[in-house]
Amino acid sequence: MKTSILLTVLFLILGPLVGGLITGFDRKITARMQGRQGPPVLQPFYDLSKLFAKQTFIVNDVQDFLICGFLVFTIFTGCLFFSGGDLLLVFFALTLAGVFYIMSASSANSPYSSMGGQRELLQEMTYEPMVLLSAIGFFEATGSFSVSEIITKSTIPAIAYTPGIFVGFLWILTIKFRKSPFDLSTTHHAHQEMVKGLNAEISGNMLALVEITEWYEKVFLLGVVGLFFMTSAWWSVIVALAACIVAYFIEILIDNVSPRVKWDFMFKSTWIVTLVVGGVNLLILMLMK
Amino acid sequence: MVKVSKSPWLLHYDGSSCNGCDIEVLACLTPVYDVERFGVINTGNPKHADILLITGGINAQNEPVVKQIYDQMPNPKVVVAVGICACNGGVFKECYNIKGGTDTVLPVDIYVPGCAARPEAIIDGVVKAIGVLDEKREKMRKGAAE
After folding, report:
1. What is the count of structural domains for chain A?
2. What is the tens place of the pLDDT at every residue in B22-38?
3. Contact call for residues A127 and A172 (beta carbons, < 8 A)
C-alpha cells in the first residue's frame, strides 16, 4: 500500500521531468543520427517555459476544457498504473484521454485540426486491439489483471510467455509515440505532408499543457514496456529499465529510417501484426495452460 | 526568468520568391548549418511560431495571406525579411504587380539582404531577431504588470 502511494506521487512529480528528459535525449539522438549536432538535452523544458510565456489564442471554450480532460485522464491513467491498479481500467482510461484530445481537435473550425482529429481517430482504431490483447496476454501469463499482482506473484517475467504480444506492443508504440512511419495525425518533423494536425489550433500555455500530457503518456507507456520484464525480484527493475531504454532507442531508429505511410497501410499492417504475433501468441498461451 | 530566446520557432512563408532564398532557408536546417542546435524549429504553423521569415516581394495576391499569417501568430513575434525582394522588392520592384518589400504590409524587425541571402546571413538575422523577441517579451511582461 505504502509503495503504491509512493510510486503514484513519484509519477505525479517526476513524470513530466523524466518525460521531458526522454524527449530531449530523443531529439539529441535523432540529430546525431542525421549527422547534426542537435539541440541541448534540456531543450524541451526551454520550449515549455517559452510556451507558458506566450500569448494564448483561445479558439473556443470547449477546446480548453477538452485539453484539460486529456491532461487529467492521462495523469489518472498513469497514477492507476503506477499504484498497481487494474490493467483493463488503465487502458480504458488511456482511450478516454485519447478521445478527449480528438474531440478538442475536432471542436476547432480548422481543416488541419479536423484532419488531424480524423487521423488520430483512425490511429486509435488501429492500435486499440493490440492494447487490449496486451492486457489479456498479461492475464493469461500471470493470472491477474492487477498490475501489482502481475509483479508480486510472478517469478518468471511475463515476456517469457508473451514475446509475440511484446513485439505487437512495440509496433503500436510507434503510433502512440507519434513516430514515423505512423505519425499521421501530428509529427515532430517538419518535412511531412501535414506537420501539425491534431494540435494545429492549440497555442501558448494550452500547447504547453499538451506537451506535459504527452510526457506523462510517454512515461506511462514505457512503464507498460517495463511491466513485461517485472517479477517479484528487486533486480527485475534494472532489467525493466534497460528494456525501456532499448525499446525507446528502437523507436527512434525506426522514426529516422522510415517515411510516413498512408493510413490504410498503417491500419492493415498493424491489424495483421496484431492478429499474427499477438493472436497466435495468445492462442498458444491458452492451449498450453 | 523565462526567455523566449532559447526556443525560437520559425514560420517560413514564400511570398513571390524565385525559390533561391527558400532553398537557403531550408539549407539552415541541414547538417552543415543545423539551426536546431539553437532550439530553432521550422513549425509550419503560425499559432506555434515566434519568428516569421518572409522571402520574396509582396503582391496583390499574397498581401492578405501574409497579413492573416501575421495576425494568427501569438505575441511576442518578430518578422524577418529574407532576401532583397522581401526587403524592398529587389529586381521586381518596378513590376506592375509588385507592391514592394514586406514592410509595405507588415512591421519588419530584421532585414537580411542578399540575392540569394546566404545561410550564414539568415542565421545571423534569426539570432538578431531572437534579441528583438526578448525585448518584446520584456515589454509585454511590463505591460501586463501595469
Report:
1. 1
2. 999 989 888 888 888 88
3. yes
Q: Which residues of chain A have pLDDT under 50?
A: none
Place of cell 501574409: B66
The rounded distance, in Å, linking the Cα atoms of A123 and A100 is 14
Burial of A158 (0-12, 13-18, 19+ CB in 10 A): buried
Contact A50 B3 (CB under 8 A): yes
Nearest CB to A39 within list B36, B44, B74: B36
Measure B8 CA to nearest chain A CA, in Å.
8
Q: Which long-range contacts (CB under 8 A, 24 or more apart) does A40-46 make?
A: A40/B37, A40/B39, A43/B6, A43/B7, A43/B39, A44/A20, A44/A211, A44/A215, A45/A20, A46/B3, A46/B6, A46/B7, A46/B39
Residue B143 lies in a domain: no
Which among B30, B39, B76 has CB closest to A43?
B39
Q: What 8-state DSSP symbol labels residue B90?
A: G
Do the beta carbons of residue B126 and residue B80 sit within 8 Å? Answer: yes
Can you list the alpha helix ranges (DSSP code H) found in B3-145? 20-27, 63-72, 84-88, 119-145
Distance from CA of A64 to the nearest CA of B (A): 15
Query: Residue B2: what pLDDT?
Result: 45
Quick check: A158 and A227 in contact, CB under 8 A? yes
Nearest residue to B23 via CA among B107, B96, B88, B117: B117
Q: Is B80 helix (H, G, I), strand (E, B) or coil?
A: strand
Cβ–Cβ under 8 Å, residues A77 and A94: yes
Q: Is B139 on the interface with A (CB under 8 A)?
A: no
CA-CA distances (angstroms) from residue B78 to A14, B35, B41, B136?
A: 35, 17, 15, 9
Output the domain CATH number for residue B91.
3.40.50.12280
Instruction: Determine the pLDDT at residue B42.
Output: 87
> Containing domain of residue B120, as a range?
4-138
Name the residue range of residue A46's domain.
Answer: 2-33+41-288
Query: Which triple of cell numbers denotes residue A54?
Result: 506566450
Residue-wise pLDDT for A178-194, tens only, equals 988 888 888 888 777 78
Is residue B29 less than 8 Å (CB to CB) from chain A? yes
Residues A66, A103 contacting (CB under 8 angstroms):
yes
- The confidence score (pLDDT) of residue B75 equals 84
Report whether pLDDT(B105) > 60: yes
Q: Hey, is the C-beta of A148 within 8 angstroms of any chain B C-beta?
A: no
Give the residue from A189, A222, A190, A207 showing the smallest Cα distance to A198.
A207
Q: How many domains does chain B have?
A: 1
